[in-house]
């Protein structure tokens, strides 16, 4: 152990212990959370001479009484004993009862060492013996709940440490702790442990993907702000998608984390430092570079007198995590100034997420109620070239419950190609450029830049710079969209407006460009036969798709849940319902709407209108059912000729799957139309008719 002689030099603790490598997936199966992770980091630091410039510490097992501040006795007992001989035959089965967990003979010791090591370095930093420290530990901790191992985590190392400092070492003067969790996954365990505790400000930035990204619960939502005395002391920044990188993280640091940290004034900062948001990580799908991590860390060093402890969490690309930790170590050592540059602009969704988070928390943190600077909103808000080049066929991988990878089609091309999508022409302010005191909200659309206006005057029908003129025109007309299938279930339908995915549906929706809520919801019945056809769909797997017979029949009735939305939104629903948003993301923005204002007159007159532009989709036929509040009632279904094909067997036919049935019933029951039994009878009846 070589202590640096220069007293002005920053004292950085560095902890690594080979014993933590003994925790490994049994039977030698490959697993992303494997011993090579910390070995790779250590080797990289050694090869760059980092340990010689740090205070190298050895690991220590945590004492049970410290672990007990966050975990139940039952959980402590399990982790303590799981590696013992008497568990040999049961270990694998017990592990399988948890979510994403394995155990072997080395697990108990590694878990105690990981927790004890984070305590050890943090105590030294709190005391002032060290300025800062990095604990290269595993297993990670932030998913571990009070009574449950989860997500590769056994003990919650960081939470145990925070409690240790607050409760066991009051003399060190640590009264307020900021936990920054930059692992790509939400730190559910840590959040829960301090949810009502204002002494710990928990901040987590993570992929959320509307609740579908691991750990895939609502806990990671920005609505989770803490409770009781802890209200305002829990901050979640939930990314809507992968591909987030340096620019997105730095934007969140500048516009959310740092203003709050400034006002909270923590006594120490514990970083749940996962590096699975790093570029090339196999689980994360984000692209933070080592330079990005170094910036994030540097920006935190101005707080808590630089008392910062980094505890490793996730991170599964050996090279990426090693390079990232190295970059962070250099920052803590305060050697050379940072070199690098941010290559991209933040995603449009990042802007939206930051607005949501700030809105939710501004009563607790007044610094968040000031408007974001204008340049963040518009002038610099351009896609980076890399993102522009993403083809519509790009795919993002998401994990399923078994931890295996499933591939879903990217539905974000619209968003990425048109980052100025929030921009609409506001007639009241026509021609006026946005000013810094004009914050765009759902109700006050941003005015287009002059540039775009002028260009549009020259080419009135063309899509210019992501501003198709038809959108602003159709955003001023409202219609009733009558849904008779799964969209009767409101949360399901809202995905087509807000974007996202709900329980039971396999599809991730991009949403409408205008994400404002429907202006009204009413129920009605119409004299059309409901029926089910097709055998397999992307959204529902095996099972049918609901259609309305295009021709009315006085002897039948179909329930319909009607949403009052703009014609712009109806177009976006049409696009998504026809699964055309992937191929069509770009051309849709550029060309004409699928259903234009003039089409409304035609459909009203003929009661139905077959859209040529939608002939590749299932719902190319627009039906008209009269008016409500002077607004047309429209829906979409198949053509009469397709009905003939279903009848003749030319097109596959099938009733709804169980999931689909449940959602249909749920829509009808939650919409208070009929009882569960009546709903089931209604759907079964439809499923057996043509
Ligand atoms: C610590 C961490 C990820 C768990 C993913 C489980 N856990 N599929 O990154
Ligand atoms: Zn993670």
TrEMBL record:
One of its GO terms (molecular function) is metal ion binding. Residues 31-331 form the Histone deacetylase domain. Pfam families: Hist_deacetyl. Its EC number is 3.5.1.98. One of its GO terms (cellular component) is histone deacetylase complex. GO terms for biological process: epigenetic regulation of gene expression; regulation of developmental process. It catalyses: N(6)-acetyl-L-lysyl-[histone] + H2O = L-lysyl-[histone] + acetate. SUPFAM superfamilies: Arginase/deacetylase. InterPro entries: HDACs (IPR000286), His_deacetylse_dom (IPR023801), His_deacetylse_dom_sf (IPR037138), Ureohydrolase_dom_sf (IPR023696). Keywords: Chromatin regulator, Hydrolase, Metal-binding, Nucleus, Repressor, Transcription, Transcription regulation, Zinc. Its cofactor is Zn(2+). It is found in: Nucleus. Its main location: nucleus. Belongs to the histone deacetylase family. HD type 2 subfamily. This is histone deacetylase. It comes from Cocos nucifera.
């Amino acid at each position: 152990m070589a202590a640096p002689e220069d007293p002005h030099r920053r004292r950085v603790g560095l902890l690594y212990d080979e014993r933590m490598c003994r925790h490994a997936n049994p039977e030698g199966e490959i697993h992303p959370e494997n011993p090579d992770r910390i070995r790779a980091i250590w080797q990289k630091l050694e090869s760059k001479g980092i340990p010689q410039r740090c205070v190298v510490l050895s690991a220590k097992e945590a004492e049970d009484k410290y672990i007990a501040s966050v975990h139940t006795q039952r959980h402590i007992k399990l982790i303590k004993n799981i590696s013992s001989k008497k568990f040999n035959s049961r270990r694998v089965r017990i592990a399988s009862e948890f979510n994403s967990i394995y155990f072997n003979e080395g697990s108990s010791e590694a878990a105690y060492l990981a927790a004890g090591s984070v305590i050890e370095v943090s105590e030294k930093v709190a005391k002032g013996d060290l300025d800062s420290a990095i604990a290269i530990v595993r297993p990670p901790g932030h998913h571990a709940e009070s009574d449950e191992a989860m997500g590769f985590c056994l003990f919650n190392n960081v939470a145990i440490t925070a409690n240790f400092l607050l409760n066991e070492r009051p003399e060190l003067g640590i009264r307020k702790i900021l936990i920054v969790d930059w692992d790509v996954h939400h730190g559910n365990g840590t959040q829960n442990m301090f949810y009502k505790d204002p002494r710990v400000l928990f901040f987590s930035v993570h992929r959320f993907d509307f609740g579908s990204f691991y750990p895939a619960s609502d806990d990671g939502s920005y609505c989770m702000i803490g409770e009781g005395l802890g209200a305002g002391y829990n901050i979640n920044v939930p990314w809507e998608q992968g591909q987030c990188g340096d620019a997105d993280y730095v934007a969140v640091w500048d516009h959310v984390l740092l203003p709050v940290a400034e006002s909270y004034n923590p006594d120490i900062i514990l970083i749940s430092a996962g590096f699975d948001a790093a570029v090339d990580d196999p689980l994360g799908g984000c692209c933070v570079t080592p330079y990005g991590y170094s910036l994030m860390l540097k920006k935190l060093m101005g707080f808590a007198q630089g008392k910062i402890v980094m505890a490793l969490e996730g991170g599964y690309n050996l090279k990426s995590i090693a390079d990232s930790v190295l970059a962070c170590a250099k920052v803590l050592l305060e050697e050379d100034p940072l070199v690098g540059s941010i290559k991209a602009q933040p995603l449009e969704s990042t802007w939206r997420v930051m607005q949501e988070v700030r809105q939710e928390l501004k009563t607790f943190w007044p610094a968040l109620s000031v408007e974001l600077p204008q340049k963040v909103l518009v002038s610099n808000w351009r896609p980076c070239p890399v993102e522009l080049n993403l083809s519509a066929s790009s795919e993002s991988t998401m994990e399923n419950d078994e931890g295996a990878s499933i591939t879903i089609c990217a539905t974000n091309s619209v968003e990425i190609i048109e980052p100025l999508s929030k921009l609409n022409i506001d007639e009241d302010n026509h021609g006026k450029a946005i000013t810094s005191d004009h914050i765009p909200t759902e109700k006050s659309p941003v005015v287009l830049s002059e540039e775009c206006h002028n260009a549009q005057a020259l080419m009135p029908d063309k899509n210019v710079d992501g501003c198709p003129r038809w959108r602003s025109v159709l955003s001023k007309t409202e219609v009733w969209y009558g849904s008779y299938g799964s969209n009767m279930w409101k949360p399901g339908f809202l995905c087509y407006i807000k974007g996202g995915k709900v329980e039971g549906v396999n599809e991730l929706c991009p949403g409408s460009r205008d994400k404002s809520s429907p202006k009204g919801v009413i129920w009605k019945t119409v004299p059309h036969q409901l029926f089910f056809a097709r055998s397999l769909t992307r959204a529902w797997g095996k099972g049918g798709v609901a259609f309305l017979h295009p021709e009315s029949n006085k002897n039948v009735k179909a329930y319909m849940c009607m949403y009052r939305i703009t014609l712009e939104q109806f177009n976006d629903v049409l696009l998504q319902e026809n699964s055309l948003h992937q191929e069509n993301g770009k051309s849709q923005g550029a060309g004409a709407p699928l259903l234009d204002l003039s089409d409304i007159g035609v459909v009203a007159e003929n009661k139905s209108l077959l859209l040529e532009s939608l002939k590749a989709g299932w719902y190319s036929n627009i039906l008209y059912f009269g008016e409500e509040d002077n607004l047309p009632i429209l829906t979409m279904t198949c053509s009469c000729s397709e009905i003939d094909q279903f009848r003749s067997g030319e097109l596959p036919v099938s009733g709804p799957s169980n999931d689909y049935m449940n959602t249909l019933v749920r829509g009808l029951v939650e919409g208070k139309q009929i009882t569960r039994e009546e709903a089931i009878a209604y759907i079964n009846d439809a499923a057996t008719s043509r």
